[in-house]
Automatic annotation (TrEMBL):
One of its GO terms (molecular function) is ATP binding. PROSITE patterns: PROTEIN_KINASE_DOM, PROTEIN_KINASE_ST. The keyword Isomerase does not apply. Gene3D superfamilies: Transferase(Phosphotransferase) domain 1. The gene is VvCHDh000069_21. Keywords: ATP-binding, Disulfide bond, Glycoprotein, Kinase, Lectin, Nucleotide-binding, Receptor, Serine/threonine-protein kinase, Signal, Transferase. InterPro entries: Kinase-like_dom_sf, Prot_kinase_dom, Ser/Thr_kinase_AS. This is non-specific serine/threonine protein kinase.
Amino acid sequence: MGTLQDRTLCMLLNWEKWFDIILGIALGLLYFHQDSTLKIIHRDLKTSNILLDEEMNPKISDFGLAKIFESKQVEASTNRVVGTYGYMSPEYALDGYFSEKSDVFSFGVMVLEIISGKRNTGFYQSDRTLSLLGHAWKLWKEDKVLELMDQTLSETCNTNEFSRCVNVGLLCVQEDPSDRPTMAIAVLLLNSDAATMPVPKEPAFVVKRDLSRTTSSSKAEASWKNELLATIREGR
């Protein structure tokens, strides 16, 4: 019937349906990573690859870049990085390494996009320096996560579930793959009513680009990484 990028369609959905969609995507990824006969790493998860059927159930599609892992295989690498800028994990975008944690990163980006109604690529806010991930991280640190909410959800939103989604999204986009949850843990956290949640560390790609003219080594490295990422083709 449509995809998650169909904003006209998506504006008709209430929070309950959006939460079901997020959970449905998480369960689909869990199946590919853990429950399928073959362990599948998608490598190109993005909102346009999530189809919605007539009942608005999500279906993960487009496995053209997917890789099959051996049962005990944890990671693989490639010299040819392909995928979609904005959804790729740092270890894959910069070094060509991919694993189930790369898909977890992409899932986290999608969660933050869904609940905010904004895309990570082309995200705009007043000082122009933060990515959507950085903006979400800033609001989380300031205990203002509800300000991230897509305004079309304001009347129907369950604020506890919303805050939980922000927390899970930020856990999934942490820079170090070992800090990210597995999809099994992500599903558990999404379904949890616990008062406390794991505390995320700073996400990858917090800053969109370095606007400062400083020549410090850290700034130079950030600039170099941004230039490298800019060479990655957006879309397929």
